Amino acid sequence: xxxxxxxxxxxxxxxxxxxxxxxxxxxxxxxxxxxxxxxxxxxxxxxxxxxxxxxxxxxxxxxxxxxxxxxxxxxxxxxxxxxxxxxxxxxxxxxxxxxxxxxxxxxxxxxxxxxxxxxxxxxxxxxxxxxxxxxxxxxxxxxxxxxxxxxxxxxxxxxxxxxxxxxxxxxxxxxxxxxxxxxxxxxxxxxxxxxxxxxxxxxxxxxxxxxxxxxxxxxxxxxxxxxxxxxxxxxxxxxxxxxxxxxxxx
Length: 250
Ligand SMILES: Nc1ncnc2c1ncn2[C@@H]1O[C@H](COP(=O)(O)OP(=O)(O)OP(=O)(O)O)[C@@H](O)[C@H]1O
Ligand SMILES: [Mg+2]
Prior knowledge:
The structure is a single chain. By secondary structure, this protein is an alpha/beta fold. The chain has a single domain (about 25-50, about 60-245), classed as P-loop containing nucleotide triphosphate hydrolases (Rossmann fold). It is built from 9 helices and 10 strands. The two termini are about 35 Å apart. The model has no long low-confidence stretch (mean pLDDT about 90). Magnesium ion (MG) binds next to helix 1.
């Protein structure tokens, strides 16, 4: 088991966000997390890598008790985890190449040859080799997303956490990014947790999905099972999402 989350609770004063969240993700599995805006999906991902401390519960990643690790052990574990933040920004004053090198130079002891070969590999994977020496301001939004994705996988993480990787992209680019995530997933044999509102993205990526609502996981299953469900909450959720996604431009 790559990830085991057990009875996670997190409140901000009187705002109860996570109210006993439990789930597991197997090695090399792609799991999607659905939920309305504000249900705590980003909070959940942040708790998983201890960017935020939950009030109670347990998180195990690769068999390690995340909340019990000391800082050195935590940093070691984080080297195996990639995180594509919601609206993940590139450093404006750095070229694409420098942006990509940044996580490698900061956290890993690699020689220049290895760094160059990884930069080339990830740029090729996202079909943006010719953007290597450009500044982020010279790229379109979709290209920046792809570079962000390239940067999050350059460390060859075993676990990838994606927070809305396709939000704000046009449907064609969103589909391309989803296909890319899926391909990378298989090429690098990563496990991934993908928070998304994008049903098409979920269909491309997900082996399984969970639905977060009112602080709890209320449903779990394949995308087909969830979208075909007669459960009022799910019916509502998916019909709203389809309308919302088509007009959404966050
Ligand atoms: N640092 C914080 N301090 C106080 N409240 C917070 C903090 N971070 C998140 N929250 C609250 O936690 C709740 C869940 O936020 P979260 O960002 O996880 O939602 P989400 O499910 O990711 O929504 P979206 O789909 O819009 O990204 C919200 O009510 C939010 O206001
Ligand atoms: Mg969020």
